Amino acid sequence: MGLESEWSADFKVTGTSAAPRMAGTFSLVRGTLGFAGRSFDLSEGRIGFTGGRTIDPTLRIIASEDIEDVAVNVEVGGRASNPQIGFSSTPGLPDDEILSRILFGSSVTNLSALQAVQLATSLNSLRGTGGGLNPLGKLRSATGVDRLRILGPDEGNGRGTALAAGQYLTDDIYVELITDTRGFTATQLEVSITPWLSVLSQAGGSGSSNVDVKVRKNY
């Protein structure tokens, strides 16, 4: 689920092997949360077990990241069987502005028409409005890919509005195929060397290729 973390625990297990009961809490020590292609640092975490017959703990997890000079928080709460995702930020912004920065790294005022549609459907899905249209999510589930997104045009690379589909080959290797209606295709490979260092390579249909290094370090 994108959660890589370390926790401390203080709980009891009673009952029988066929019907165990758990009571107590797990508390966050450290960790990160992967959400919408970004890595957020966990700042608060608590998982509580009530000791009832049904093992369905309560959740309180907050993950933070600085995006475009805005401190963005992703908050996960509710029950493990039906977790609820919320957003907050400093300075305070509405949900659509926060999610726009998470998904696209930019304000909602700078989005393309297709990005705006993706933002609206993502908000509708997260808010649980019931029956909401989420075509990218449905397509991602149907094809079995790990990540599916729409990219705006990039005239410098000769790419129009494109669809990118990616798959994790292992925990450390991610490959993504990018294609548009003009016939542009490119393959991007990301290899994680350490938790904070990755190597990215991209080969385009025009024969061009490039290699970049992505460094992430918290101070």
Could you please describe the fold and organization of this structure?
This protein is α+β, with helices and mostly antiparallel strands. It folds into two domains: 94 residues; 71 residues, no CATH class. Helices cover 15% and strands 53% of the residues. The chain has three helices and twelve strands. The strands form two sheets. It has a six-stranded antiparallel beta sheet with strand order 1-2-3-4-5-6, with helices on one face. A hairpin with a 4-residue loop joins strand 8 and strand 9. Helix 1 crosses helix 2. It is elongated. The chain starts with a strand and ends with a strand. About 3% of the residues have low confidence.
Rg on CA atoms, Å: 20 Å
Helix content: 10-25%
How many strand units? 12
Shape annotation? elongated
- Structural class, judged by helices and strands? alpha+beta
Low-pLDDT runs: 129-135
- Oligomeric form: single chain
